[in-house]
Amino acid sequence: MALSNDIVLRPRFKIKVERYNQSILSDFKAAKTTQTDFIVTQVDDHVFIKFPKHKQTFWSPQLHLEINKIDDNSSIIYGLFGPNPTVWTLFMFLHFVVASIFIAFGIWAYSNWTLEKDIAIQVSMMMFMVIIWIVLYFAGSIGKASSKQEMHALNDFMHQVLGTEQKKTP
């Protein structure tokens, strides 16, 4: 599970599998009942793998798989690691609020500048919003780093169900 760069907060991957997609989906459906380490949910061609509530933390990841049919003998799996959708929505909402406040103070600063009034408060608040955005980014990075072992566990479980060899990263 090598990542292309360190900036990505929600790693994605794709795997081509030489099996029919319904066969893969039925394997995940069977895995749902034969193990208790993960919660496996299936909706159409989408499979969601996450940890049970008692093992979850705030940053616990989940794995979303989309299993698409290429032909009768092969499928492609698109995977996305990410936090709980509620956590991700909150995280994006905070980014939106910070950006909106930054823009509002920018408009206010421009208005005061054209009126030749003092803009120190507005520029200070804009700089503070940039600092908050950087803090949010690093909080997300720390959350991702703290859940790396859980991401590997989800990845290993996926490969176990698929019966595929996973590429080892150095």
SSE blueprint:
Blueprint: E1 12-17, H1 21-34, E2 39-43, E3 46-50, E4 61-71, E5 74-83, H2 85-114, H3 120-146, H4 148-162
Antiparallel strand pairs: 1-5, 2-3, 3-4, 4-5
Helix pairs in contact: 2-3
Would you write up a description of this structure?
The protein is α+β, with helices and mostly antiparallel strands and 170 residues long. It has a domain at 12-84: Kinase associated domain 1, KA1 (TATA-Binding Protein, 2-Layer Sandwich). It has four helices and five strands. The chain has a five-stranded antiparallel beta sheet with strand order 1-5-4-3-2. A hairpin with a 2-residue loop joins strand 4 (61-71) and strand 5 (74-83). Helix 2 (85-114) runs antiparallel to helix 3. The chain starts with 11 loop residues before the first strand and ends in an 8-residue tail after the last helix.
- Please report which band the strand proportion falls in: under 5%, 5-15%, 15-25%, 25-35%, 35-45% or over 45%: 15-25%
The coarse silhouette is elongated
Number of strands: 5
Q: What topology, given as strand order, has the largest sheet? A: 1-5-4-3-2
By CATH, the superfamily of the domain at 12-84 comes out as: Kinase associated domain 1, KA1
Mean pLDDT: 86
Q: Count of DSSP helices?
A: 4
Written as H for each helix and E for each strand, in order along the chain, the element string is: EHEEEEHHH
**Poorly predicted parts:** none
CATH architecture of the domain at 12-84: 2-Layer Sandwich
Using only C-alpha atoms, the radius of gyration works out to 22 Å
Query: What is the C-level CATH assignment of the domain at 12-84?
Result: Alpha Beta
**First and last CA, distance:** 10 Å
Largest sheet: 5 strands, antiparallel
Q: Which bin fits the share of residues in helices?
A: 40-55%
What is the CATH third-level topology name of the domain at 12-84?
TATA-Binding Protein
Helix/strand structural class? alpha+beta
